[in-house]
Design a protein that fits this description.
CATH topology: Thiol Ester Dehydrase, Chain A
CATH architecture: Roll
Mean pLDDT: 88
Number of strands: 5
CATH superfamily: Hotdog Thioesterase
Strand content: 35-45%
Length: 148
Amino acid sequence: MNRTHIQWDSPGIKPGLSKTIQRNITKADVLPFGCGADAIRDLVPTPTLTALMVEGAISTIDPLLPEGYLTVGMSSDVTYMNPTFLGVTITVIATLVEIDGRELVFECMAFDELGQISRGKHERRIVNADRFMQVAHKRCDRLKGILK
């Protein structure tokens, strides 16, 4: 098998690399299970905010990887500090803070127009997309008879 060795600590991929994304959050961005009780249905739910932080981390690193490589999420730890309403513009800053081989650690911060609403840590792993899918198929192929 021909394996490509990638130098992950190349000049373009290093701690301090950061990306800022902004999004106006509407009801269309809310997952059906992320709505919460009726009393708080107009607030930005945690799953929506977490997804925006993950998007920030992905957009920071994936465009810099060689063709055929991408990152997959390993863990997320998000603290929701202040509630905010649907309709606000949320700004997420995702910063790469640590590289350990293929493992990447991001610190993420989220703000609305009034200040910080959340912070978190998100971990991703660099993988070869084809090999990752081979592993997934090998693991899940026995479910084909169960899943319809």
